[in-house]
User: Fold these one by one.
Assistant:
Number 1:
Amino acid sequence: MKTQAAASIFFLATSLPTALGWGTLGHQTVAYIATNFGCATKTKFQGILGDTSTNYLASVATWADTYRYSDEGTWTAGFHFIDANDNPPSSCGVDYSRDCGDAGCVVSAIKNYTSRVQSTSLSDADVTTAAKFIIHFIGDIHQPLHDEGLDLGGNTIDVTFDGESTNLHHIQWDTNMPEKYVGGYALSDAKTFAATLTTKIKTGSYKSEKASWLDGIDLSDPVTSATSWANDSNAYVCSTVMPDGISAVEKTDLSGAYYTKAIPVVELQIAKAGYRLAAWLDLIATGETGL
Ligand SMILES: *[C@@H]1O[C@H](CO)[C@@H](O)[C@H](O)[C@H]1NC(C)=O
Ligand SMILES: *[C@@H]1O[C@H](CO)[C@@H](O)[C@H](O)[C@H]1NC(C)=O
Ligand SMILES: [Zn+2]
């Protein structure tokens, strides 16, 4: 216990300022949405993850970020994003062969761990790890700045939010905006936010578009499937993240009009990520999406 507490204090002290992907709230919300939709997923992934509680996806949703910032996991850092070499705001787009790179990216990682989670020859521990990576990476790929190379995905663009100094990428898009909107970042906040978004998908404003979110989804072609999610997400870099270029956001407080315009995209991308995660896990479990 002592060692664990010391390790987590060390982690908080050294990593929090720039570390967290969608942030805890975003990743856990994505996981709960997938839990709400995935029927076939439940038995299969509760088994793989060794957790029969209703938090079976949410409780492992940020493991990949913790691992990435540990000494043994540094090598996986590049799996959390794809650096599109596009030219926002005038032109956006992800091109897998141009942008993924030899060391891998979030698209190749989704491919690799989708193959590994279905393996019958790997150890149970390796299959469990593969599941945890997929649950996290399908969240990451839906954050527009995880699909952008410019200024390290916005990490070097200094902004403020409610007066607090931060940067455009992690804190602003991943964390500050969803947390301001939801009003907290506890597991219970994620569950409530997921319930709201689940209702929007089932019967609300996303009902008519949700089928299109699964266009082209193909478990046998993870690169094409995941590249289309990345490309879809990256388009918001041009339309919403920096529609007037870097100079319009740099050193600016983004908690007002910018936030108001951005928050529907944050919600939409979290909803899509959860729905697509449910579909992907269902495909792994049964070969069909069940949605
Ligand atoms: C696939 O995952 C395994 C286990 O994490 C890793 O050792 C390997 O390098 C990965 N391969 C690719 C191409 O990413
Ligand atoms: C990416 O999206 C653009 C439109 O925004 C489209 O023209 C292009 O074909 C898409 N590319 C991929 C790989 O999906
Ligand atoms: Zn991540």
Number 2:
Amino acid sequence: MEFRDLKKQYQLHKSEIDSAIQNVLLSGHFIGGSPVIQLEEKLADYVGVKHCITCANGTDALQLALMAWGIGEGDAVFVPDFTFFSTAEVVPWVKATPVFVDVDKDTFNISPYSLEEAIHEVINEGKLTPKVVIAVDLFGQPADFPAIRMITEKYNLLLLEDGAQGFGGRIGEKMACSFGDIATTSFFPAKPLGCYGDGGAIFTNNDEWAKLMQSYKVHGKGEDKYDNVRIGLNSRLDTIQAAVLLAKFDSFVNMEINAVNRVAEQYSQCLSDVVDVPKVKEGFVSSWAQYTIRVASGRDRLKFVLAENSIPSMIYYSKPLHEQMAFKEQQRIYCRLDNTIELCREVLSLPMHPYMEDRDVEYVCATVKKIHS
Ligand SMILES: *Cc1c(COP(=O)(O)O)cnc(C)c1O
């Protein structure tokens, strides 16, 4: 069994994907060109925002947003303690300070209570200026944006949505990657919408920021890339990746999002009486980048026995960000991070993808139940 079966997805869409790649090869244009423009238009339209700017990966996307906002030394950027490293990695990169915030145990997403506590603490301390909140759509579920937006408005902060795992999710009819002042996503192969290499995108309604990020991603270009008006990056999505994404897009929208939700429902029905299953808030729809259970005791043994039964599982994440050696300079903790510490001991992600057969889900459930009841 595969944890995320990218081979099966390719086999099923082989002819569209092969001919999309072939067309790029025949065109001889490997950077930029119409597939990139078409993709940006399609994604902006799907998400419901004015600008989509593709870039080289989801980490650059976050960094480009902070660069466009001019975030730097002395600025506090609030990030969840429980997320992939990238979310916070970009903060010291622009010389700002990450302030780690606890998450909600049911949704795994940034806790509005903890966020407000951390903001107060930063203000009281008086050393850093609160500037940005990065809210992550972790494991596919949009963060609690109605509550977070109230806080960013109250304290006049910018909201950056890290939708690397959340593309395709929504709250009501409003799509993930439309909630932040700027939102980002990743097309890393295993993300909900993946390409066949690295890729990322940025979304915003703001014309000025969009223009700045267009410039920053191509060496700080002015009129063209040989007119350089600021220090930027080389961060483009290449044409083959854009073509792959275009070829996969319709089935992502029309089939895959529904399919992962069916798998999640099947898991939850079967497992809710033996482990803590993930909870999706009323009116929220997840794109299920991961299906993550909580096992109060015996998580590592469960993982081991699953492996013995040929079932792959993963621990996302085993270490709170504030314990990562890379952040040892950012030792100051501004709020309690107890939920994150607990989750790191308890979480286990099970195989999840749109092409998972019913019998595979049943086999995983039966195996978990055999060990855990
Ligand atoms: C994957 C991921 C990123 C980074 O995306 P890359 O394309 O790998 O750079 C950022 N944030 C989160 C939450 C992610 O899961």
